[in-house]
Amino acid sequence: MDRKIHSHITCAFLYTITRYGYPPDARRMDEYLQEMAELGFQSAELEGIGQDHLRETARNIPAIRKALTDNGLSLAVFCTVLPHLGSVHAALRKQALENFREGCEIAVQLGAPAVLDNGPLVPYDFPADLPVSRHYAPELLRRVGLPRAFNWKTYWDDLVETIGQACSIAAQYGLKYYLHPCCGSLTETTDGFLRLKDAVGMENLKFNCDLSNQYYMRENLSLALLKLGSELDYIHISDNRGKQVEHLPAGHGDIDWDPLFDTLRQIGFKGQLSIDVGGAETELGDLDSAYLETAGFLERLIEKHHLFDHE
Predict the structure, then answer these.
(1) CA–CA distance from 101 to each of 64, 121, 311 (Å)?
(2) Residue 76: how many other CB atoms lie within 10 Å
(3) Fewest C-beta in 10 Å: which of 33, 112, 137, 282?
């Protein structure tokens, strides 16, 4: 595609997940990047989903770097999906931290300024046959309990220590560490994240605002942006109708976008707007059209609200 999308608009990895399933083959990362570039994106996300997927990605770093260079792409973040960082078991947390370091090494080699993961999920008693999910809706969580031996204070103290260690590892590589508000996690709202950040006390711990998820969780989005202020520099963009977890093209749900962009200008936002449309939970027509439509929608809002005029 000849037309280049605004450089502050990123193509999230959900584009690839929606097209190829979860998780997509880690050996084809260079192809995924080419597909994003062919749509006109100049900025992209990639993910390493669990230890094996992460290590397969590491083995393909030369091809990924070539694809980034050949297609004129920069990597906004590298996502390290490691749910055991929130485990109650010390051995699993230790292994997850080792994998997290591997993810940081990948991020640095690919030129990403940050790593990103879902917020921690407490150890609910999920059914044994429940598949791993990107989100856990309140309807599900209301039907599951917690282990009888679960102690909140012990869990919280261990979690704060573990996230602090992850932040320290990221800092050694000069990276920011974003937590994503997946539904069901302890950071599914801005206040949940801010409580954890206050406890951890690390400057490089950041929030990946996800407007669709937070709208579904009944959060006041403009207030969320104001709470984060100048700390906010990475936002997942999709729309939502407030009835279920879904990631619609911007303008196809109930989010009121003009007040949000007015607030972004007010707080001096200079970061990336990452299009995060799709997923198995979303009824979608043509995937490429959905991303291009959302990119155009965002470009018009950027121009209307003079969001990046003073760079």
Answers:
(1) 19, 20, 33
(2) 25
(3) 137
